[in-house]
Model the fold of this input.
Amino acid sequence: MNHLNYRILAFGLLAGLPPNVGGGKPKELFPLTDFYDTPESFASTGKPGDLIRSMEFDGYVIPQGAKATRILYGSTNSQGGLAVSSGVVLVPPGEPPEGGWPVIAWAHGTSGVDRTCAPSLTAECFANYRVPDTYIKKGYAVVATDYAGLGSDSPIAYMDRVANAWDVIHSVKAAQKVVPSLGRRWIAVGHSAGAHTMRGVAELQTDINDPSYLGFVSMSGLGNARDPMIFISKMAPQLAFFIIISVKARYPDFDYADVLTDKGLELFEQEKARCQGPGFGPPEPSPLKGSEALKKDWDRNPYIDKYFKMDESGQEKYRGPALVLIGDKETPHTMKNDPAVAKRMCQQGVDVLLKIIPDAEHVTLLGKSIKEQVDWIADRFAGREIPSDCETILK
Done:
């Protein structure tokens, strides 16, 4: 892959947006208010899935007639401890169907790792992806988590599939407590970092066994994090910055200076709180290559290595069904890792439909696969026969 393509790919992964969306400066960013702060009593009285507080909010750019409600709710971190996440419930206009609005639990891509980088603090409110907008127009309610640490004051856990998956799962439970028109049945959908989260959702559901969960859709990023993160960080060290901030949140003894050069430390201080992605506008090109900002073998630092190994797959069990979408112009690591997870799922008896979308890369996959998404989702809610490519995948 040449130097120009590296930069285009890095831009796409950081922005996580379809073409002509999110360009330029964001329309409006809302302040981080005390709505997002965890009550002192919650540590001793709260439980995962508890609704801490909610508020209707009419400042978002969403389809006409749709209603938005912000939520703050209890979640679970990957060590099994209590966490807090925020999010938004988006409900279509009109009267719900019998049984309530079918629910899509949306898991967004990279937006940053600072509290102010919560997509619920942007005017576009996840709809800058245009995909949640499409779901609302098709008659689905969207429950969109920010993830713990974005908005909420819990520690950040970027690319921690288990923690992020709990945020998705608990968001549905919390949303149903505040919006009575929501149905019980739900499907999880994620792109990029959110696709990575789908692996966690499928894993956790083997134990939860929620009968209302109907499966998941992943769009580019289902597989392991290490290889693609290292690959993209060569030209976009911001991704490495996001990882090491999350590592520091989990392992306080970790020292940034052990993995960053002097120039890298300087850039890190400038970039660590910068938001990018849905609603924040596109990222600015990095003034440094990864090799200038990151020390050699930075990913083999004991703390970084431990964080990545926590993510490595191969032993966990999964619950489907699953629609796995990949653009045919994706990174070689994604083209290898996502089908590998699909294969492991098939080996466990999970029904997997794997689609390679022509002329689509990480950024444009969202829009170019919209028909595949909505058709598969509609079939799951309708109870139609579940399609599977496993016979081909296992060859």
Summary: Residues 3-226+317-393 form a domain with the Rossmann fold fold (CATH 3.40.50.1820). Residues 161-178 form the longest helix (18 residues).
